[in-house]
Design goal:
Elements lengths: L1 H6 L2 E6 L2 E6 L1 H29 L5 H16 L8 H8 L10 H32 L14 H13 L21 H12 L5 H32 L5 H10 L11 E4 L10 H20 L7 E2 L3 E2 L11 E4 L6 E4 L5 E6 L2 E6 L1 E2 L2 E2 L2 H13 L19 H11 L3 H11 L4 E4 L12 H11 L12 E5 L5 E5 L6 H19 L19 E2 L16 E8 L4 H5 L5 H17 L5 E6 L8 E5 L3 H12 L4 H23 L5 H14 L4 H8 L4 E5 L21 E3 L7 E7 L5 E8 L7 H18 L8
Helix pairs in contact: 3-5, 4-5, 5-6, 7-8, 8-20, 10-11, 10-15, 17-18, 17-19, 17-22, 18-19, 20-21
């Protein structure tokens, strides 16, 4: 086989005349280039580590300080106030050519200048951290910026004016604060008041008061101690106990999906689309490794934490009996590919050179054209990653701990990411509403054995060139994978391009070795499937988007969340505990916090709408109160004053200490029957959305958190449309995703009608 020959750098034969060596120049060239590339990466990491370590300083600023010190000395001005002379006296005496008085003076000035420079960096970094602790700007009304906030913004810009690298701000980000127990309990009781009757609420008040007075002070001390020691008092426990210790299947329950552009199509050629997209992904990974990606900034000045990006590539979740672990490699030079029940290993590099899109297209076409059948047990092997974690861990230990199975599994787990080539075609047809839901279900679970759910993400390619992602949740949250996806889709559409026939630009190199089949020896297995129980309803809401919502003088997110409350009450006839994810990335290693969207104000509005006897003016007033309350809660969650992460950590401390708390036990057992999330967009400005309004992705979705509940994700896509992804379970007689979707439509229109929004939707 060609790839086997290329893998051997030299061969030798023992003859009567001695040993005959036969060197492969091409193979040695690849080994040499690979080594050079590896050293380049090491040097880049060292350089970036230095630049990141001295931010907001720079080597140039260090030279400026030295030149200022030396220049002042020549002008007989001692700006060091005698420190240079003191340093000079402390230097060891010597007799070499470099120990002249002039050399000793220059060395002393360099040491002094370096000390001043390092002190300045420390001062500026601490000042920046203090400035980033200010969150008053978030609570000011739009268009009414205070003088304090203006001065604060100016100082932030001055301290971070130099072009930052991806991780430049990490050490300047403040730590997530631990809220006061009394404040958390007060907000908790306020959040459950509309869900409990008077007797139930009184009982919960007693439990909360007992916890606050007796148990909480001790738990809080340990939590504060952890917050002093750790970078973030929540994130490591959240990753371990919410994700990695979960024993239920990842498919549907944890993993989520992301859709492709849905209103345009660049090519119908499956292999060509993969060539461009994977080339763009590795370009992104290269930028990530070199820290050339700009950090995400709120308002263009407040940096968001970037640490979650570190494990985007070369990461796999490894199953364990009690807990899983995340395996992250510093580099990977191949992807694992699944097609028609067969697994392949596809190299992304030739020596040190990244394969061009046309070469990748050729390689994927070779896989698509390969007629070989699956090996016994190979076709449904990936179903193990879709089942229970304990069962998968046991099977992994029993069948994949040695031999060819171990080697093949390592090829998948050590891949940059996983690629699934599907034989079906899916896309969004605006004339066929069901098409978007079918597309979503294919991305969420496929046929349960054509996705490797353990990989950080699986790139899914359909026969018609449409794409999507299925992402594992433990390593990062959805905005992180969304950042990658925006870059990739923008690069594909506006930088790489296609020929008139839909192929990648340029001519491929036919001498490349073809992808390698992975070899297995697997007994017959049966894997569990959850997919048939999931109902997914996706739709595009066309009557209006954020453009008209803003005319209602409220935030688009609050508008949609209140509409969800109205829709849920119409669907189920009652209110429920509602989860909306917000981010805490303004803090170091921050991930998410919960916004409890079902409030007394939103329920008052919903009840007034249901009664039908209130005037529009009264309903508008109730709506504005509910929206204001929601916006305030969202801001509190983003600024570290949420409810649920604090209570979650107090609960864990109680378990570590062996302390029983009926209050915490009840709080942590409450089901989230309505779990919601807004999908971020435009994190990277790859193109002008006004000039290219059809370059819209449809967002993505996830499965329901509760068996008798709904999962709702939505993307407010531009000025004139909103995409919704609604999930429920067929096994629940109380839920129906399509019915709930219809209620959402009506709720949005009814609320818009209160404000007499111009009815472009009528």
């Amino acid at each position: 086989m060609a790839e086997a020959h290329q893998a051997v750098a030299f061969q030798f034969t023992v003859t009567p005349d001695g040993v005959d060596f036969r060197l492969s120049r091409e193979a040695l060239k690849h080994v040499y280039l690979s080594g050079i590339n590896s050293w380049k990466k090491r040097l880049i990491r060292i350089k970036n580590g230095i630049l990141r370590g001295v931010y907001p300083g720079s080597p140039t600023s260090w030279l400026v300080v030295i030149m200022a010190t030396v220049g002042s000395s020549f002008c007989n001005v001692d700006i060091s106030l005698g420190l240079v002379s003191c340093i000079q006296r402390c230097l060891p005496q010597g007799c070499g050519p470099y120990q002249t008085p002039q050399t000793r003076a220059l060395l002393s000035m360099a040491i002094f200048s370096t000390g001043v420079w390092v002190t300045g960096i420390f001062f500026f970094r601490q000042t920046l951290k203090l400035l980033l602790c200010y969150h008053g700007w978030m609570f000011e009304m739009h268009g009414k910026t205070s003088n304090l906030t203006r001065i604060w913004a100016m100082c932030i810009r001055l301290l971070s004016s130099r072009h930052p690298m991806l991780y430049s701000f990490q050490t300047s980000l403040p730590k997530l604060p631990v809220p006061r127990v009394s404040a958390t309990i007060q907000r908790y009781l306020e959040s459950v008041r509309p869900l409990l009757d008077d007797e139930e609420y009184y009982r919960m008040e007693l439990l909360a008061k007992e916890f606050q007075d007796k148990t909480a002070p001790r738990l809080q001390k340990y939590l504060v101690l952890k917050s002093w020691w750790a970078s973030n008092y929540v994130s490591d426990w959240w990753e371990e106990y919410i994700y990695l210790r979960g024993r239920s299947p990842l498919m549907v329950n944890s993993n989520y999906y992301v859709m492709d552009l849905v209103l345009i199509k660049n090519t119908d050629v499956q292999a060509a689309r993969l060539g461009n997209i994977i080339h763009a992904m590795i370009m992104y990974r290269r930028k990530l490794d070199r820290e050339e990606i700009k950090p995400v900034m709120a308002l263009g000045i407040v940096p968001m934490c970037s640490y979650q990006m570190e494990r985007m590539f070369n990461t796999t979740r490894i199953p364990g009996k009690d807990t899983d672990v995340l395996q992250h490699l510093s580099d990977s030079r191949h992807v694992a590919v699944y097609h028609k029940g067969r697994f392949f290993k596809l190299w992304l590099y030739e020596g040190a050179r990244l394969l061009k899109p046309q070469d990748l297209e050729m390689q994927f076409q070779r896989i698509l054209d390969d007629p070989s059948p699956p090996q016994p047990g190979e076709e449904k092997l990936a179903a193990l990653t879709a089942g229970g974690r304990v069962e998968w861990a046991q099977a992994r230990q029993a069948f994949f701990s040695s031999g060819k199975n171990k080697a093949a599994l390592e090829a998948i787990e050590r891949a940059a990411f996983f690629v699934a080539l599907d034989e079906e075609s899916y896309s969004y047809d605006p004339e066929d509403e069901a098409s978007l839901s079918l597309y979503g279900k294919a991305l969420l679970h496929g046929n349960c054995y054509n996705r490797w759910f353990d990989k950080s993400f699986t790139l899914i390619s359909f026969k018609n060139g449409q794409l999507g992602l299925n992402a594992e949740h433990a390593w990062a949250d959805a905005p992180i994978i969304g950042h990658l996806w925006e870059f990739v889709l923008g690069t594909d559409s506006f930088h790489l391009g296609y020929t008139e026939t839909g192929h990648c630009l340029g001519k491929p190199n036919p001498a490349l070795a073809p992808p390698t089949r992975l070899q297995w020896d697997i007994p017959k297995q049966v894997a569990k499937a959850l997919a048939d129980d999931v109902e997914l309803y996706c739709f595009q809401f066309l009557p209006f988007g954020k453009g008209l919502i803003k005319k209602c003088r409220t935030s688009p997110d609050a508008f949609v969340q209140i509409a969800l409350q109205l829709a849920h009450f119409r669907d189920r006839g009652k209110f429920c505990l509602t989860y909306e994810a917000s981010m805490t990335r303004m803090f170091r290693e921050g991930r998410t916090e919960t916004v409890r969207s079902c409030t007394s104000e939103s329920t008052a509005f919903v009840q007034a709408m249901m009664e039908g006897s209130h005037t529009k003016a009264d309903l508008r007033d109730l709506f504005q109160k509910a929206a204001k309350k929601h916006q305030n809660m969202y801001r509190l969650a983003m600024t570290g004053a949420g409810i649920d992460r604090h209570l979650f950590c107090l609960y864990l401390v109680s378990k570590y200490l062996g302390v029983s708390s009926p209050f915490l036990a009840e709080v942590l057992s409450e089901p989230w029957r309505l779990s919601t999330s807004q999908i971020p967009q435009s994190q990277i400005r790859m193109f002008d959305p006004e000039q290219h309004p059809n370059h819209l992705g449809a967002g993505g979705g996830f499965g329901p958190v509760a068996d008798d509940g709904y999962g709702v994700s939505y993307m407010i896509a531009g000025e004139n449309t909103i995409f919704f992804h609604i999930s429920s379970k067929f096994s629940s007689s109380e839920t129906n995703a399509q019915r709930f979707g219809n209620h959402i439509r009506k709720a949005l229109l009814d609320i818009a009608d209160l404000f007499q929004v111009p009815k472009a939707y009528s």
